[in-house]
Write a structure and sequence with these properties.
With about 425 residues, this protein is mostly beta strands. Among the domains are: about 5-140 and about 375-390, Galactose-binding domain-like (Jelly Rolls); about 145-260, Sandwich (Jelly Rolls). It is built from one helix and 24 strands. The protein has one helix at about 290-330; strands at about 5-10, 15-20, 20-25, 35, 45-50, 50-60, 70-75, 80, 90-100, 110-120, 125-135, 140-145, 150-155, 160, 170-175, 180-185, 190-195, 200-205, 210-215, 225-230, 235-245, 250, 255-260, 390. The protein has a five-stranded antiparallel β-sheet, with no helix packed on it. A five-stranded antiparallel β-sheet has the order 13-16-21-18-19, with no helix packed on it. Strand 18 (about 200-205) and strand 19 form a beta hairpin. The longest helix has about 40 residues, at about 290-330. The two termini are about 40 Å apart. Mean pLDDT is about 75; it is low at about 270-285 and about 320-430.
């Protein structure tokens, strides 16, 4: 199997947390979730099969003293650390906090342990997601970035990059008819991207099938929107084609592919050639099919012709008798009414373009959003992480050390509600 990039969210049960961790997350983060700790010695462990791994997270611009720090250990020997700078002016997202050294891992099973080696008085380092290269199909999803060479842009789309984008890259087009195509192995696919116009429109089709028309929903965010989801597909090879339908920006940030079940065999087109045989087939004489079918068809045609002539003459004779009866009784025939020509009759219903009905609704939304459905705000976000969600209790430490955060009891029930929305917005993408 080809090497793929697998993605693991911070809330995936494959990541085992020890010590005291707190739930966080905002909409531009993967799955809109993160995890952080303010307790030194807290750990997050993850076992994987692959050849390299990278940990991504959010770093809050709090410039505390002492500053938070994480250490990374693989298989008890490969180590690394991350400490944020102390002069940050804004939060950073989708940041690669640590990557395993090149060629340091063989293609096998490994364990990564992340440790909060130095703790700050507030949340600074937030675990968002993990990417690792693997040949295993036993993963939840593959991650395909917009710059992956598997994606074909026709013609080339404009390339962008910002803190809002995953891997800090994205691509967009404003030309009608521009498209991208991605051939993948899997049983479903999703596309995520930005929305910078309430009137953008694109078509999405799988394997040349019927297209789904997408327009932004009224609650679209500036980035990390689910733009397309294929639903369940037959395990195998598929091709997704996305085409811009107007002059408003259509964005692509990243794709998630659900892999085929382990052991799935991708069947190719059956060969027309059979296995050679040393035994010649027995010869026999047979009456040609044409010699049998020809006379039968001829007889049936003759019978049909005779029947048609008989019915035609009979109908003409009946009509002549009826008209004679009318004339003999001085009864005028009724006026001929054709279609909707009679007075008071309704006209024919309007005819629309082929394939459409008189009631047209968008495929992906309950109604076409108005031009004001997406608000572009140029305000700067000071901190998205000042009010955390309830902490994440672990079996190893159900009692959380930090009392400055809402506490989750050992039963898992929160004693306070999720953090309120601050109402602050991030600066938008600028399409120039």
């Amino acid at each position: 199997m080809a090497t793929q990039i697998a993605v693991v969210d911070d809330r995936d049960p494959l990541i085992q947390y020890g010590g005291s961790w707190v739930r966080g997350g905002v909409w531009l983060e993967f799955g809109s979730t993160t995890m952080f700790s303010v307790t030194a010695g807290s750990t997050a462990s993850f076992t994987f099969v692959g050849t390299s791994i990278t940990v991504y997270g959010t770093v809050a611009a709090k410039n505390l003293n002492p500053q938070a720090s994480w250490s990374f250990v693989i298989d008890g020997s490969i180590t690394g650390t991350y400490t944020p700078p102390n002069n940050m002016t804004s939060d950073i997202h989708h940041e690669a906090l640590w990557t395993s050294p090149a060629s340091s891992l063989n293609n096998g099973s490994h364990e990564l342990v992340i440790t909060q080696s130095a703790a700050a008085s507030d949340g600074v380092l937030y675990l968002d997601y993990i990417l690792y290269t693997t040949t295993s199909a036993n993963v939840s999803a593959y991650f395909i970035d917009d710059r992956d060479p598997q994606i074909k842009y026709t013609p080339a789309w404009r390339q962008f990059g910002s803190d809002l984008d995953f891997q800090h890259t994205s691509q967009a087009t404003t030309n009608v008819g521009d498209s991208l195509s991605l051939t993948f192995e899997g049983k479903s696919i999703q596309l995520f991207g930005s929305v910078t116009s309430a009137t953008e429109k694109a078509s999405m089709a799988i394997d040349g099938g019927p297209a789904t028309i997408w327009i932004p929903p009224a609650d679209a965010k500036q980035t990390n929107n689910l733009i397309y989801s294929s639903g369940g597909l037959t395990p195998g090879n598929h091709t997704l084609v996305i085409t811009a339908m107007n002059d408003q920006p259509v964005w692509a940030d990243y794709f998630l592919v659900t892999p085929n079940p382990p052991g799935t065999v991708i069947s190719s087109s059956p060969s027309s050639a059979g296995s050679p045989s040393n035994t010649a087939p027995p010869s026999h004489k047979s009456t040609p099919v044409g010699a049998i079918v020809g006379p039968i068809v001829g007889v049936l045609a003759l019978v049909a012709l005779v029947a048609a002539i008989f019915l035609c003459r009979r109908r003409r004779r009946q009509q002549e008798e009826y008209e004679g009866l009318l004339m003999s009784n001085d009864i005028a025939p009724a006026p001929s009414i054709s279609g909707y020509a009679a007075a008071g009759a309704a006209g024919p219903p309007p005819v629309l373009s082929r394939g459409y009905s008189s009631s047209l609704v968008p495929f992906a939304t309950p109604g076409e959003p108005g031009p004001s459905s997406v608000v572009v705000n140029s305000g700067i976000l000071r901190s998205l992480h000042s009010d955390p969600d309830p902490p994440f209790a672990t079996s190893s430490n159900p009692q959380l050390a930090s009392t400055s955060y809402p506490v989750v009891s050992s039963s898992g029930s929160a004693t306070s509600s999720a953090r309120p929305n601050s109402g602050q917005e991030l600066p938008p993408h600028y399409f120039e």
